[in-house]
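Async update (no meeting this week)

Hi team, since we skipped the sync, here's where things stand on the single-chain job. The sequence we agreed to prioritize is pasted below, unchanged from the tracker. I ran it this morning and attached the output directly underneath so nobody has to dig for it. Comments welcome in thread, and please keep replies under the output.
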Amino acid sequence: MLTAVAEIAPSGWDDFVVRNSETPYPQTTLNARYTTACYGLTPIYCSAELADSRLQCLVFVNQARKILKWSCGPVLTGDSAQFGELTGLFIDWVSRQKCRIRTSTSVEICTLKSLLAANELLSHARQARMEDRLGALVKKDLTGDIWESAVYRSAGKKRKTKGLVDKSVRDGVVVLSAGTTEFPFDLEQAYLGSYRALMESGFARNNVDAQDSLAAARAIMTQDAEGSSKTFFAALAKEIVACLNFAIVGDEVYLRKLAHTGGSASSGATYQAMMAAAEWAKGSGKRWLNLTNIRLSADQKTRNIRQYKTRFGGVVYPVFELSSHQPLNG
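Output:
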């Protein structure tokens, strides 16, 4: 039995995460491979055991800048009475890395057990002098009528997302995936040309300089070919105007990379592609379409992202977000 957090090899890691996490992808080796390619971060697989309880968390470290982060973790199983001690061990390990903490999130709070786990994490993070705030995950349940549930309110009126999709279809947008007979584009050009260019356009609009667009496009292309992710390309007049990539883990698909031209046509195309992904995921027997994190701050960019992700009829689950501006002192 371990009495401290150990850094372990990832053998059997994904099985544990898929069994015990409501949002497994951020804690999987699939994400580790993708994040390492895109950001050059070092993945560390942390584990601790206490009696019949266990904690695991995939943590990423930027060694050059001494920054550490994780998402949707740590994942815990066993007796909730042990969660406090286990999360204390984890936060002690995090503190001893002497890194700044870039926005890191607890597990989604959707059950009593996850609430207890997140609360213990928050308590120990505060003792370590981390800053905290409330955030959320948005997940669309695919078991019912995915179109009937896709509604939102605008200007005081209830509206259907199908109206946005229908307009995109009338404008001539088509949504396609690689590997189908209808896919008209050269694969390398679609991924390493068009998708990469759309990523670069988004990076420029949002002042992003920490991602390698070519490495991201290559990783997505490789994992699509493996069947561990799937990309939906939205095209207008033979030009790709939007791309949405989803990782496939357990009973959910997880929105990993959305890129578009930034124009009004691509805005409608992203709604069309998202619902095409929902239809495909439902037809593949998946339970959830995970639209990932939303922030609660009031700036316009954040509000626009939040508005988009909540227009598909998803359930909003709270998470705690943790960070520190200075390195922690373990």
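Quick observations from my side:
The two ends are 23 Å apart (CA to CA).
The mean pLDDT is 93.
Reply here if anything looks off.
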